[in-house]
Amino acid sequence: MTAPVVLSALAVDLAAWFPRHDPQQAPESVYTFAVASAIKMLIVFTLYMLGVALLTLAERKVSAWIQDRRGPNRAGPFGLLQPVADGLKNLMKEEVRPAGADKWLFIIAPMLAFIPAMLVWAVLPLATPLPTPWGLIDMAVATLPVGYLFMLAVSSLGVYGMVLAGWSSNNKYSLLGSLRSSAQMVSYEIALGMSTIPVLLLAGNVSLDAIIAQQAHMGWNVLSLTVAWFIFLVAAFAETNRLPFDLPEAEAELVAGYHTEYSGMKFSMFFIAEYANMATMSGLMAALYFGGWDIPFTQWDNEAPYSVLKTLATLSMFAAKTGVFLFLFMWVRWTLPRFRYDQLMTLGWGIMLPLALGYILVVATATLALDWLGVPRDWRFTMSLLALNVVLTALLLLWGDRGRLVSPASARLDARELARRRARSTVAPSTAMGAPSARVLATASDTEAQQAPAAQEVGA
Amino acid sequence: MTPFYRFQFYLFALMAIGAALLFVTRRSPVSAALWLVNVMFALSGLYVMLDAPFVAAVQVLVYAGAIMVVFIFVVMLLNLGRPGQLPDLREVAPRLGAGVVGIAILANLLAVRRDALPTVALEPHADNVVTPVAELLFSDYLLAFELTSIVLLVAVVGAVVLAKRKAAP
Amino acid sequence: MLREYLPVLLLLGFAAVNAVVILGLGELVTRTHPTEIKQQPYESGMAPLGDARDRFSVKFYLVAMLFIVFDIETVFMIPWGVHYQQLSCAVPLVDGACPAGQLSFFGLGEMLVFALILLVGYIFVWKKGGLSWD
C-alpha cells in the first residue's frame, strides 16, 4: 500500500510543474480511468493476498496470546514468515481426489469460493479520493451507485463454493457440512439484509459513498441504530461461519466439514476465501455503522479540497476500524463455545428475523415522529435515536436473556419446560442432525412428524 | 450506440444464450444448475447496460443467490446422483411439448418485434439508482406491491404444508 | 455511467485467472500417487458405508423456501427504505427535508400492510413448528 502512496505523493509535486488536469476534478479521459482502475485492482489484489496471509498469522498469534502461549515464532522474526511456510507446504502437498468425486465440480468449487470473496472488495471505499495530476481518483476499484447491493448480492454467492465442495466430494461429512453451512448462511442472510434497511432509511441511498457521507454529517449509525448493528454483528459471525456459529466445520463432529476431502492449493483457496470474507464483513460493518473512513469529531476529512494527507489519514482510520472488528472475530473465536444446531436455527429465525423486522418499523416510526417534532437531521436526530436505542437495548437484554428460545446448557428452566425437553429428547433421539454416518433419509421427517405429537403429550 | 457497447451487448447475449443451451442439454442436474447461474449473470450484465443497475443487483441477489440455492437443495433432495443412474426424462412427448412452447415464444417475440419497441425516456438519476424504481413501485404500482405480499404468503403456507405433511399410513 | 461497472468486470476476470493459475500451479508442482485406499472418502478410519449422495431431510428444503420468501421481502424493503423520507411527505422534499405540516403516514402504512400480511405467514410457520429444529 505504501509504495503507490509515496509515488502519488511525488506525483503531486510534479503536478505543480506540469499542471495538466485539475487534481480536484474527476478525470474525464477514458485512458486515465482505465489505467487507474487497473492499478487499483492490482493494489486490491495484493492487499487481499497479503492481508489474508497476515490474518492467518494474526489469528494464531491472538489465540496464543489469549491462551498464554507463544504462538508461531520459528519461521522468520516473530514468526512473520509462517504464512509463507504454510503456503509453500500447501503448494507442495499431494492433491487427493476421492474416488467417487465429481471431477470438474470438485475443481470448480474452491474457485467459486475464492472469486466472489475477492469481488466484494471492489466497491468498498477505502479512503477519501486521491488527487493526482491526472485528476481525482476514487479510492475504490469501482465506485458503483449500487455499492451496498452489489456487496450483498456477491457475498450471497459464496454459498455455492461450499455446497458444491460438499456435494462433489462424495464424503458424508462434507455433505453434512455443506448442507449445514448453506442452511445457516441463508438463514442469517435474511437478518443481515434486514438489519441494514434502517441504514438505508437514514441515508436514503444504496451507494456506500452516500451512506458514509450521511454518517459524517449526522453521526455514526452505531449510535442511531445500535440494535441494527448488533443484529448485523451476529449475522456477520454466522455468515462467515466463525465461532460461535462454526457448525459447518465443527471439527469435533464433522472432521473439517465441507472441505474434509480437500488438500493442497484447493484447500488453501477455501482458507483464503474464509479469511477474506471475514475481512469483508469487518469492512462492511465499518462502512455501514462506523462511518467508513470518517474521522470522528471533525469535518476536516469530509470536505474538499482533497489532499494526499487526507487520503492517508482516512485510509488508516478505515484500516483501524476494520482491524478492531477483525480482532473481535478472533477474540470471540477463542472465547465462546459453539452453538447447537437447533439453537442456531432458532436464534436466526425465531429471534433475529422478528427483531430485525420490528426494528425497521420502530426506526421508520421514530424518524417520522422526530420529523414531526421538527428535530433537524443532524447530531440532535442521532442523539434522539440513541436515547430510543438505549431503552430498546435495556428491554432486549431483560427480555431476550431469559434462556427460553436460545437456551444454553446452564440456563435456568422452569420445571415444566425441563420435563418437556427431557421427554422430547428421550423419544426422538434418532432425528438429531449431524450424526456422521446416519442415513438421514427424507422419511426421517415423516417419522418425526409422527413422533412429535407423542413427545408433546409426554411433556404435557 | 458505440462499437464498444455493441461488443458488450453481443458478449453478454451470446453468454446468456450459450449458457442457456448448456443448461438444457446437461445430464447432470448440478452442472445444469450452475449453467443457469451463468445465464442469470449474463442477464444481469444486460440490465446494467440498459441503465437499470438496481434490477441487475436484484437479479443476482434473488435469482442467482436465492432460487439457485433452492434448486440445488431440490436436486440433492431428489438424489439425482450420477448422470448414469438417471432415467432419461426427456422422452419424445416432453420434447415435442417443449418444442411447441419454444416456437410459440419465438413467434410471440417476432410479433412483438414487428411493431416499433416503445422508447423509454431515461431520466438521469446518477446519484440515486433506486429512486426511479421506488417512485413508481410505491405510487402507481402500489396495489401490485401489496399483492406481492399475498403471493409470498401463499408460498410460505405451501412450503410448510408440503414439508410438514405427515406420511400416508 | 456505464464505465463505472467495467472495473468490476475486470476484477472478475482477474480473480478468475488467478484462481486458475493458483490451482494450475498446484497441479504442476505436485505429483499424485493415487492408491485405492488413499482415494476412499475419509470417514474417521472406518470403511465407508454406502454412497454419500443420499436423500436428505426435508427440513433443509423448508429453510430454503422460507429464505426465498423473506429474501424477496427484504428486496422490496430496499427501495422502500431508500425512498422513505419522500414517501412520508405529501409534497416533494425541499433541501432534503419535508416542509412543516406536510408529513404523511403513507410510507409507513404501505410497509405496515406489507409486513403484517407476511407476519401472518410467519406466525403460521411458527405454529406449525416449521421454525423449530429438532
Largest interface: A-C, 102 and 82 residues
Broad structural category of chain C = mainly alpha
- Compute the average pLDDT of chain C: 81
Envelope shape of chain C: flat
How many individual domains of chain A?
2
End-to-end separation of chain A in angstroms reads 64 Å
Distance between the termini of chain C: 51 Å
What is the tally of beta strands of chain C? 0
Main beta sheet of chain A: 2 strands, antiparallel
Rg of chain C, rounded, reads 27 Å
Secondary structure: number of strands of chain A: 2
Query: Could you give the order of the helices and strands of chain A?
Result: HHHHEEHHHHHHHHHHHHHH
**What characteristic shape of chain A results from the CA principal axes?**
globular
Instruction: Supply the number of helical segments of chain A.
Output: 18
**Strand percentage of chain A, roughly?**
under 5%
How much is the radius of gyration of chain A in Å?
A: 25 Å
Number of helices of chain C: 3
Topology overview:
The complex is a heterotrimer of chains A (460), B (169) and C (134).
Chain A lengths: L1 H16 L12 H37 L15 H11 L10 H17 L10 E3 L2 E3 L9 H9 L2 H11 L3 H24 L1 H7 L4 H11 L2 H4 L1 H14 L11 H4 L9 H26 L18 H26 L7 H33 L5 H22 L14 H13 L15 H17 L1
Antiparallel strand pairs in A: 1-2
Helix pairs in contact in A: 2-13, 2-14, 3-13, 4-6, 4-13, 6-7, 7-11, 7-15, 8-9, 8-15, 11-13, 11-15, 13-14, 17-18
Chain B lengths: L2 H23 L3 H21 L3 H25 L14 H23 L16 H7 L4 H22 L6
Chain C lengths: L5 H24 L29 H29 L18 H22 L7
Key phrases:
heterotrimer; A: 460 residues; mainly alpha; 2 domains; 18 helices; globular; disordered C terminus; B: 169 residues; Four Helix Bundle (Hemerythrin (Met), subunit A); 6 helices
Describe the protein in words.
The complex is a heterotrimer of chains A (460), B (169) and C (134). Chain A is an all-alpha fold and 460 residues long. Chain A has 2 domains: 2-400, no CATH class; 420-459, no CATH class. In chain A, 66% of the residues lie in helices and 1% in strands. Chain A has helices spanning 2-17, 30-66, 82-92, 103-119, 147-155, 158-168, 172-195, 197-203, 208-218, 221-224, 226-239, 251-254, 264-289, 308-333, 341-373, 379-400, 415-427, 443-459; strands at 130-132, 135-137. Chain A has a two-stranded antiparallel ribbon with strand order 1-2. In chain A, helix 6 (158-168) runs antiparallel to helix 7 (172-195) and helix 7 packs parallel to helix 15. Mean pLDDT of chain A is 79; it is low at 428-460. Chain B is mostly helical. Chain B has a single domain (3-122), classed as Up-down Bundle (Four Helix Bundle (Hemerythrin (Met), subunit A)), CATH 1.20.120.1200. Chain B is 72% helix and 0% strand. Chain B contains 6 helices and no strands. The longest helix of chain B is centred in the middle third of the chain and has 25 residues, at 53-77. The radius of gyration of chain C is 27 Å and the shape is flat. Chain C has 3 helices and no strands. The interface between A and C is large, with 102 and 82 residues.
